[in-house]
Amino acid sequence: MVGGRLQEDFDLIHIQSLRELGKLVLDGTGIGNEGVFHIVSLKQYLYHLDLSNNPMIDDDAIPALILFKNLDYLSIVGTGIKMPGLRRLATPTQKEGREIAIEIPSVCEKYIDNIEKEYLLQPAPPLIVDPTVCSMLSKAALKRNLGAHAAVNSSILASGTRKEMAERLKNILETRKLDLIVREMLTDEDTEGA
């Protein structure tokens, strides 16, 4: 399967019986999300999975990828996976204390490299970082918090009704929290290779 294209994702069912397969390279084989789900049966032994250059694999494949708990290497370069999918993958990986060397799509890499332009990365008190308390803040506190993020990213609106501002700040802080998990996952990979 290395270096060749598959007729259909369904063709991957033929390797499901290779239960002790440790390394699987599906680089540029033309598979999509269905193909990723077909190889979940290999999750017990697979430690190296290369899905690079398969643009039909996108965020919908993340639930299957989360099941591969023994992976120490994953390449999703050249796939259609975006930041929402990467955030979904990083969260259980962090919670379970798994360390995985991961190669990510360039669009995600660019986003993480420029994360400090998305929102205020390290809010200092009295600004908040906990998204669960947004609904308890006064309108003035919400405006102050959103204003600090808007100073970094001019597309962030620092006005509106109290409810609108609370929801907007909550979304920013939830995204920030997940982005930091992704960045930590990638940083762990970089420091291990150094």
UniProtKB/TrEMBL annotation:
- Domain of life (superkingdom): Eukaryota
Which InterPro entries does the entry link to? Answer: LRR_dom_sf
The name this protein goes by in its record = Uncharacterized protein
To which species is this protein native? Hydnomerulius pinastri MD-312
